[in-house]
Structure formats: C-alpha cells, structure tokens
Amino acid sequence: MEGEVISKNFIEQEIDKDLKEGRYKEVVTRFPPEPNGYLHIGHAKSILLNYGLAKEYNGKFNFRFDDTNPTKEKTEFVQSIIDDIKWLGADFGDTVHFASDYFDDMYEAAVKLIKKGKAFVCDLTADEIREYRGDFKNPGKNSPYRDRSVEENLDLFERMKNGEFPDGSKVLRAKIDMASPNINMRDPVIYRIARMTHHNTGDKWCIYPMYDFAHPIEDAIEGITHSICTLEFEDHRPLYDWVVNELEYPNPPRQIEFAKLYLTNVVTGKRYIKKLVEDGIVDGWDDPRLVSIAALRRRGYTPESIKKFMELSGVSKAQSSSDYAMLEYCIREDLKMKANRMMAVLDPIKLIIDNYPEGQVEYFDIENNQENEQAGTRKVAFSRELYIDRDDFMEEPPKKYFRLFPGNEVRLKGAYFVKCVDYKKDENGKVTEIHCTYDPETRSGSGFEGRKVKGTIHWVDAQTAIDAEVRLYENIVDEEKGKLNEDGTLNYNPNSLTILTDCKLEAAFKDAKPGESFQFIRNGFFCVDIKDTTDDKLVFNRIVSLKSSYKPA
Ligand code: ATP
Ligand code: MG
After folding, report:
1. Is the pLDDT of residue 379 over 90?
2. pTM over 0.85
C-alpha cells in the first residue's frame, strides 16, 4: 500500500512462501462450524481471518457445516450461523457446503485405505482400545485384530455399513504406529457404528466418520489450500497430513494453527452461557451482555467495529487475552462519525422556565453531529417546561460542580442560558421540580457574546418528548474478582443490567428504527433493541459510554 510497510502475520508469511515455491497456485480457505450452538466473538475471529485471507490473495472462501456428528447437531442453529456470517460481511458465494454431502466420498476413502493395508476393523471395546493405547510415558500395544487380511476388512467394513453389527461393537481404525510419541497416531479410530438419524442424510448411514478423518477429506474435496484452525489441533496435524497423503490427493491442503481469541470480562463457554440462560439471568443467547455474534449485533456492535477489533488483536501462535475495553474503543471509533447525536434524559426531572411565555414554542436548529457536517441539522422544539437529568442538578454542589444549582447559570445545549431560582422537593426530600429564568439575549446562534458560563447541559422539551426504556449494561463477570466461585459456578455481576423505564427523548427519536444507533449527548452510544422494541414502545441498549480508559498502542 503506497510504500507503507505493513508487517504480515505468520499465516500470511506461510502463504507467501507456499505461493512463491509453487505449492499452491491460489488460496482457498474455509470456515467450518459445527451446527451445535450460536457463534461467538471467537468464531468471528476465525471467520474474518479466513475470509480476509481469501480476499487478500484473490482466492476463495468456503463456508461449510461440519455436520459429521449427528448427536450434537441441531438444525435450529444452521440459520442463525448463516445469518451471523452474512452479517459479518464474509461473502461465501451462493454455496453452503455440508460435510455430510461427502459421506459417500469418505466411505470410499476408507475402503481405499483398507485396500492399501492402511486401515483395519477392530473388535476391541472402547475401554480396551483406551487401555491398548498407552499414554505419554508408555507406548501402546497392537490390537489383536490389526493383522486381519484386506479381504476380511473389506467384508467386515461393508457389513458395518449394512447394519449387521450392533452400535459400538466394531470400529475401523487407521493402521499407523502404536509406538508413536504422538498418541493421535496410535491407530486412531476413523469410523464408528452408531444408529443415529442425521439431519441431512436421515437413516442412510449407521456408520459415521470421526472428525480427524473426515475433516482433511472435506478440505481436500473442496480444494482448500490452507486449513486454518486453533492451537488445540496442533497435535492432530500429523494425522491430518497422513490422511491426505495416504489418500493421494494431488494438491493436498495444509493445516495451520493459531491461538484462540480470549476476551476479558466476558463468558464464551457454551456450558456457562447455557446455565445463565436456564437460570434466567440472561434473556437468551442474544442477551446484549453476552458476546455471541447475535448478542453483539443486538447490543449495537457493527461488523466494522468487530473487524477493527480483530485487526488490533492480531493473529499469533501465543495464547493471550484481549481487553474488552479494546472492543469498546472500536465501536466508539466506528460510531463517532456515523451516529447522530441527540438529546435523551434518562433520569428526568422537570425544569420550568418561569419567565418563558406560556404556550410559546420555538425551534432550534441543532447539528446532528458536530464532527460530521454531512449529517446535517434538525429542528428541536423548546418551550417553558423541559426535562433535564437528575444528575445535572445539585442542591448543595461540591467545588468544581459547574452544572445547575441554586443561583448558578448554565447553557442549555443549543438553546439559552438559564439560571436556577428555586426548586421543590417532595416529603422524602427528593427534588421534583427546578425553576429557572432564561435570558432571551443568550439565544444560541444569535451571536451573543456576553457573559460566559462553565456548564452546558442537555435537555428535552416536555411537551413533545417521547418515552423510552433504556437498558444499561455492565460486564457480566469481573475478571479481577474472578470469573468463577470456589464451587466452580459462575461469579456473575448482579448489577450487570439496569432498566430505566421513564426516559424522555427528544421528538426526533420518533423515527428511530430497530437496530439504529445514536449518541445520547454527554452520555454514550445507544442502539434501538431489535427484539423488544414495538410500535408502542422504544427500547434502547447502551452499547458503550463515552468515557474510555483504553488507548490503542
Ligand atoms: P466446540 O468444539 O466446543 O463445539 P468450537 O468453538 O470449537 O466449539 P466449532 O464450530 O468447532 O466450535 O468452531 C468453528 C471454528 O471456529 C473452528 O475452526 C475453531 O477453531 C474456531 N474457533 C472456535 N473458537 C475460537 C476462538 N475463541 N478464537 C478463534 N477461533 C475459534
Ligand atoms: Mg469444535
């Protein structure tokens, strides 16, 4: 890019080398989720990495459901996963691949291994197989069935397929090396008998391939060049290579591992999220406090902000945790120019301008985004009765409090200066009403250059205000206090959700659409909830406050 030196990550360096040495002529990557849950921010990393590489090298990006394991799969997840990937902007063309489409090829591949003397049918029980396998210190022992003839193996494997044997009574194993220091290479099981109905193939099969056998075949069939996965598969790579080499694929794919994304102050484990959902602590998998992609979208994160976050967190082989504050930084940066800045009062208190004519209404032109002229302006109504935030008034202010207090003058954002002359309280001492006078000379836009005030506060015209519910979020767990209790349960923050039901918004919000984001002036970024907003009720989620402690390196 115009002489700019951008350091490439280790995967790009490997790809450069492969292309230079002619190992591959193009780059084909894939994202292969199991349809057994919602995708989360960790998956987003994998999606954007794989898609990004395909795009960078003018290659291809495949999207494939890894649906070889019928017990755990649920079709209900298929659509949500497709929606999430599309939303992230990872374009996979028109084809959704299914690993189960290749069951015939996988069966043929197993037959080929048998014919080469590289696979055998084994009658040991699961426990016996484990016993024979040995461990890190001790080599394994050969199965007594290891030397069955090719003919016998072909016959037994076919009969396994035909349903002649009960579930679990036989398996097909690769014949590799029971003394290998890598336990994955000790004659791993590659097919098992299991009578399970598959969402795609129904009851056609009663034998199913194991992941380590199926995955390299799926990649090879699709012409994947770089099969990128996370570090826990590093020890499985020799088996991956063994499978594609023994099956003699002409241009076999290669596996490259990178470190998973971990994020502070969030929960990603399916087990914990399930518990939070079941215990009613969160409102489903898309609760805005979670970091499933559906939850991030509902909270108001944008695909651009997530992309930016992945760029900042980088790709490496070293295990590390990314700071949640960095994700917040990314959405603030993204919405800074995009979101209109409007006035919303979350904890309203009436402000009455005693000397403003009753029944009079005037309109101020207020810019939608001071940093983005193209955002234009809007008309904001102003009259005798307004709402301001309770926070912006104090009976007895401390030093350096520049907002409203008896005798003090402030600017009402985009309107007039007002001075507090009186206030009323109820029997509990709660302030119910503030009385002010305004100075007509100080009209915003009139060129008034008289006295200065130190505080500017936002406001909403009471007559035209619209009502809304606003939900404020805090982290659902706090890293510093420990994510787990001593008994292993989740130590969740009981204050992670605050619901404000009496918020007053300026009239322009009447056009707000579900999913649309705004800056509430002086407060933060908020998104119209896509699930609970109705024609009669506006619900906002706080995406992030305006303040940040995070600074990018
Ligand atoms: P499980 O195996 O518990 O079902 P999973 O997160 O591994 O969960 P998959 O559907 O197998 O779910 O994941 C699809 C892809 O996403 C895999 O390539 C996996 O390596 C990658 N992936 C999963 N979690 C992360 C993460 N935290 N960071 C980066 N990539 C991830
Ligand atoms: Mg997995």
Report:
1. yes
2. yes
